[in-house]
Structures are given as structure tokens and as C-alpha cells.
């Protein structure tokens, strides 16, 4: 097992534009780190530089403290698990899993390309006979009864496990996953996600996992690194990313449904209003109405002509279902839901608002920033399943203003 360190890594392709720009990241021994971001953000390029399939333009890659920029892929002892599994269709499951070991034996212990494009210096060494190791890996992956089958006769999830089996038998220092689940249907993806998470924990092997799917990122990793246009935005635990995103991009990318962004201004003459819990606070004027904020939040908002506020869908609730004690932590406002989606365990209520020209421009800038086609002038709220609110009529909703995020719309920085 090994630690992986990236110091100021830059990758420029022929066009000279940095696909990866100055990325520094320390991945501890045994840690599971997810690289996530929209298409083209440079996550695959970063992974390929770690494995050695792509040259590093500048900066340093260390594996277990040793510089590896110039090392051939086979000398890095990393195992890559690809989206398309890279299984040999004419070989059985057993032979597919044994493949890297046999190759290593043939080339005398330090193997060359094994078809995963990466090698494994330990490929043939230690840990018993090839047969022992294949059977042990198969057992771990619950593939024992399928050992004689060909990949064509396996489900997507089983193929995925065979690909992981190949990485396991090689006793690689780290597993690198490049969107391994993106070919699977939603249900299987969920199952495999859980399997990979459990397996990684059981084996304790350092793992780096690339995905564009924020749910995968949140559920798999010890830490998640969010990339945008080649630059690292934030590296943190899933919970920290969700609760304390550093900027608009991370806030909008992590979470589903996404955080709602609303333009707001500090209300003239309302600063320092008297309220038992919020003395010294202020009021923000927003398209869904006035939002009282605490003194602490008012302090960061002061001095900004225009603000962007962020409210997650679950900050909202049907006001009738909120007890008095909780009500005090937020604000009640009246809105009309344009439509309501009932999902069984909860409901999504949508509030639409009419943006003026300035707000329209702000939302379109924000969409560009987020890599989204458009940001609709609407607020998504998740309401309890037992709520009896109806669309098209004035409804009292409660919003937890204590958790509000306040962003600088110019820089995107989270001020709270
Ligand atoms: P995706 O999820 O779509 O695979 P990604 O985040 O993995 O995206 P990369 O594939 O790493 O992104 O690409 C990052 C940037 O580098 C993109 O702008 C891409 O067009 C560019 N790029 C990738 N490979 C090459 C290449 N071989 N030559 C030139 N540019 C490349």
C-alpha cells in the first residue's frame, strides 16, 4: 500500500491550455479519494498522470515519498479499473483474474503491460500460488461459482467484480478507478457503489476514483476533491463539502436537488432590527421575500451591494408542520407553489419567481460558472410527505435561515 502525493501538477496538451492546473493533493496510505467534476474538468487526465499513461508537464508526483514522474507505468505498481472493464472476452473469469499473474511469471516477476496498460512489480511475487490467489480473490468478490464463465455471460456488476479481481491478485499499491460504473443501470450502480466502498474498506488499499457523479463521490470517498476547469476547488469529507462549500461552484455541484441560489440585497434601514434571537441581525431582500439573518451573517453581508444566497431544498418545510421552537430559528413566508412532485417519502415543491433584467443576467452568469445550460428562476423545496400543501394557492412555508449560505456573486466565494 502507498501514499500518493501531487505537488503543483500541471498538464498542458498540444494546444498549451492547462487541462490540469497546479493541483496539489496528499492521498494518505489506505485512503479513498474521489476526483469529481463536470466533463472536461481534467479528472481523467489527472488519474492518467498518476498511472503514467500521460506525461506530467510540471510539478511532482510521489508514490510513498519517491518521485515517480519519469517511472514507467509498470514500475508504479498501480492497478487501474476502467469503465469498460478491459476484460478478455475469450477467457474465462478464472483466466481473466489470473491474467496479470501469468503475465508477470512469464516476464520473470516484474511484468510488462498486462492489458490494463499498467504494470505491477509485485505481480508474480508473494502470497501463494496463482491458483490460491485467484480463488481467494474470487471468494472475496463472490465470483467462485462463475469462475468458468466467459465475460459475455456475466452481468455488468459481475464483470465489474472480475475487473477488480484482477487488481486484487496483483497486490497493487493502489487502485485507480476511471468511472467504473458509468456503463451500468441506476440500480446496479447503486449496488456496485456499496460493494466497492465495502471492499475498499476491507482491503484498506489506497484508492483514487474518478467520477462526474456527485452521488458516487459523496457515498464512496473518505475525501472528495472537486475540480473545475483543471483547478482544484475544494478537498474535504463529503459532509464538509455539503455543509461548508467554499464557493458557488462546489455548492451547486454537490447535492441533489441542487442548492437554490437567489440574488439578494441587504434591506435598507432593517439592519440591527430587534428580535429576541436575532438582535443585531439584518434582513435580506430576495425574490421569495424578506429573509432575516443573524448578526454574524449580517456582518459578512455588509458592504456588498448584491449578494447571492444559497438555500438547500431541505432548508424549507411546510410551516404548518414546524413546531414553535424550531420556527424561531427560521422565517415563515408565503409563496405559491407552481407545481409539486410527490415522491412517496418526500415531495418537491417548486416556487417560480420573475427575475428582473439584472437578476436574469446574474443567473445566466452563474449557469456559465456552474457549467449548466441554464438556471431557472425557481426554488426547489423538499417538503415532508405528510404535508397537504397544494400548488397554485398561497402557502406558508418555513425556511431555516440559520443555515443560509451567503456568496459574493463576483468571486463566487462563500462568505459564511
Ligand atoms: P470526462 O468526464 O468528459 O472524461 P474529464 O474531467 O475526465 O472529462 P479530461 O478527459 O481529463 O476531463 O480532459 C480535460 C481537458 O483536456 C479537456 O478540455 C479535454 O478536451 C482536454 N484533453 C484531454 N485529452 C486530451 C488530448 N489527448 N489532447 C488534447 N486535449 C486533451
From TrEMBL:
Which Pfam family, just one, is annotated for this protein? ABC_tran
The ABC transporter domain, residue ranges: 4-254
- Keywords, A to Z? ATP-binding, Cell membrane, Membrane, Nucleotide-binding, Translocase, Transport
Query: Which residues does the annotated region (Disordered) include?
Result: 108-131
* GO MF annotation list: ATP binding
Q: Which SUPFAM superfamilies match?
A: MOP-like, P-loop containing nucleoside triphosphate hydrolases
Q: Does the keyword Transport apply?
A: yes
Keyword Membrane (UniProt): yes
Q: Where is the composition biased (Gly residues)?
A: 109-129
InterPro entries, sorted: AAA+_ATPase, ABC_transporter-like_ATP-bd, ABC_transporter-like_CS, ABC_transpr_MalK-like, ABC_transpr_MalK/UgpC-like, Mo/tungstate-bd_C_term_dom, OB_MalK-like, P-loop_NTPase
Under the heading PANTHER family, the entry gives: MALTODEXTRIN IMPORT ATP-BINDING PROTEIN MSMX, TREHALOSE IMPORT ATP-BINDING PROTEIN SUGC
Q: What is this protein's name?
A: ABC transporter ATP-binding protein
Amino acid at each position: 500500500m502507498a501514499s500518493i502525493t501531487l505537488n503543483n501538477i500541471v498538464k498542458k496538451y498540444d494546444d498549451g491550455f492547462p487541462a490540469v492546473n497546479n493541483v496539489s493533493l496528499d492521498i494518505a496510505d489506505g485512503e479513498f479519494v474521489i476526483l469529481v467534476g463536470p466533463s472536461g474538468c481534467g479528472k481523467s487526465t489527472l488519474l492518467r498522470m498518476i498511472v503514467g499513461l500521460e506525461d506530467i508537464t510540471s510539478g511532482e508526483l510521489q508514490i510513498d515519498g519517491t518521485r515517480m514522474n519519469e517511472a514507467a507505468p509498470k514500475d508504479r505498481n498501480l492497478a487501474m479499473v476502467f469503465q469498460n472493464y478491459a476484460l478478455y472476452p475469450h477467457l474465462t473469469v478464472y483466466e481473466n483474474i489470473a491474467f496479470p499473474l501469468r503475465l508477470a511469471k512469464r516476464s520473470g516477476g516484474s511484468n510488462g503491460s498486462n492489458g490494463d496498460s499498467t504494470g505491477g512489480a509485485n505481480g508474480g511475487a508473494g502470497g501463494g500460488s496463482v491458483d490460491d490467489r485467484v480463488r481467494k480473490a474470487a471468494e472475496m468478490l463472490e465470483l467462485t461459482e462463475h469462475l468458468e464463465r466467459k465475460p459475455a455471460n456475466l452481468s455488468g456488476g459481475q464483470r465489474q467484480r472480475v475487473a477488480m479481481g484482477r487488481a486484487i491478485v496483483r497486490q497493487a499499491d493502489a487502485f485507480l478507478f476511471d468511472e467504473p460504473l458509468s456503463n451500468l443501470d441506476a440500480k446496479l450502480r447503486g449496488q456496485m457503489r456499496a460493494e466497492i466502498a465495502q471492499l475498499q474498506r476491507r482491503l484498506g488499499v489506497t484508492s483514487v476514483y474518478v467520477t462526474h457523479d456527485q452521488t458516487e463521490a459523496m457515498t464512496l470517498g473518505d475525501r472528495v476533491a472537486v475540480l473545475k476547469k483543471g483547478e482544484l476547488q475544494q478537498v474535504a469529507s463529503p459532509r464538509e463539502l455539503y455543509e461548508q462549500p467554499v464557493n458557488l461552484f462546489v455548492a451547486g455541484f454537490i447535492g441533489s436537488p441542487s442548492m437554490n441560489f437567489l440574488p439578494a440585497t441587504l434591506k435598507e434601514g432593517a439592519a440591527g432590527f430587534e428580535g429576541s434571537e436575532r438582535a443585531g441581525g439584518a434582513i435580506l431582500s430576495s425574490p421569495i421575500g424578506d429573509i432575516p439573518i443573524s448578526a454574524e451573517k449580517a456582518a459578512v453581508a455588509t458592504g456588498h451591494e448584491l449578494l447571492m444566497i444559497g438555500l438547500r431544498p431541505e432548508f424549507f418545510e411546510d410551516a404548518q408542520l414546524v413546531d414553535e421552537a424550531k420556527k424561531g430559528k427560521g422565517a415563515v413566508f408565503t409563496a405559491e407553489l407552481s407545481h409539486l412532485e410527490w415522491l412517496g417519502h418526500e415531495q418537491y415543491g417548486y416556487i417560480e419567481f420573475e427575475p428582473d433584467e439584472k437578476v436574469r443576467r446574474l443567473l445566466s452568469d452563474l449557469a456559465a460558472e456552474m457549467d449548466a445550460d441554464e438556471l431557472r428562476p425557481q426554488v426547489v423545496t423538499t417538503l415532508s410527505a405528510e404535508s397537504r400543501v397544494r400548488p397554485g394557492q398561497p402557502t406558508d412555508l418555513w425556511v431555516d435561515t440559520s443555515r443560509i449560505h451567503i456568496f459574493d456573486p463576483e468571486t463566487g466565494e462563500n462568505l459564511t
